[in-house]
Amino acid sequence: MTKCKFCNKESYVKLKSPKIHLCKEHFIEYFENKVEKSIKKYNMLNKDEKILVSVSGGKDGHAAAWVLKKLGYNIELFHINLGIKGFSESSLKAVEELAKKLNVPLHIINLKDITGKTLEDIRGKKCSICGITKRYLMNKFGYEHGFDVIVTGHNLDDEVSFILNNILNWNIRYLAKHEPVLPAHDKFLKKVKIFFEIEEDLILKYAEAENIPFTTVKCRFAEKAITLKHREYFNELEKLRPNIKYQFLAGYMKNRRIFKCEEDENFEFRECEICGMTSAGRICSFCRVWKLYKNKNKSNSK
């Protein structure tokens, strides 16, 4: 039996860096210390801020809420019911259980109440539209209800796959935005990724160690997402070069300034003509993909 480096208990996890075995109790301590160090390193949060944590039902957002609550931050939970058959029901159940365990407020938004449709009802790239929808609705809710910051469960695996995808497509503007903290501006709240430097596997081990409720049901629309393929590449590389994900991210962080666009820094945002939220164009991405401008045209014609 392999034992924990710090006690005689059975090993629960083997870390890659440093290469040590930890029992469940020492792993929980290690994980929470690692998150706290990231928060301090990037000046992510402070205890006076009102924090809205995005929870979709999965382990990452739920673990983010759990660890922030344990560390003493002022959090509330935000969930969007996307109306995806099988997935949304399971997600909602897990979210409600999490809120009950943490004893924190839970805010639930039903997509159909806002757009008249669910994600099931639309055509096109559902993952892309889902991302636009989640970012918009949680920011709008947070802005209108006096929150200071939004926390998501994006992890190291997410970040390296996003960066690789944007390099392959040379999306320079997106390559400039992979930061652990996106500062607030106009009606956009500050956004924070507390798991920016933490692998997905460790988050899963933490969620299981702490008995955090989360759903294992996968969204069927995400199965064809190209970023999932990029994760597979990195997982294969990791077998040959342990810690390559973190090295790739660290290299990006060291050199990310080369992707900054002068025109972006001088860009002036405006208010969306439909919803009034901050937008890069006359109509924001959310109102455009959900065609909410048609509703406004109908109202004006009456």
From TrEMBL:
Zn(2+) 2 binds at residues 272, 275, 284, 287. One of its GO terms (molecular function) is metal ion binding. Its EC number is 2.8.1.-. The keyword Cell wall biogenesis/degradation does not apply. SUPFAM superfamilies: Adenine nucleotide alpha hydrolases-like. It is an enzyme of class 2 (transferase). Keywords: 4Fe-4S, ATP-binding, Iron, Iron-sulfur, Magnesium, Metal-binding, Nucleotide-binding, Transferase, Zinc. GO terms for biological process: tRNA wobble position uridine thiolation. It comes from the Archaea. Zn(2+) 1 binds at residues 4, 7, 23, 26. GO terms for cellular component: cytosolic tRNA wobble base thiouridylase complex. Residues 32-96 form the Rhodanese domain. Its cofactor is [4Fe-4S] cluster; Mg(2+). InterPro entries: Rhodanese-like_dom, Rossmann-like_a/b/a_fold, TilS/TtcA_N, tRNA_thiolation_TtcA_Ctu1, TtuA-like_LIM_N, UPF0021_CS. The keyword Metal-binding applies. It holds the Pfam family TtuA_LIM_N. This is tRNA-5-methyluridine(54) 2-sulfurtransferase. It comes from Methanocaldococcus lauensis.
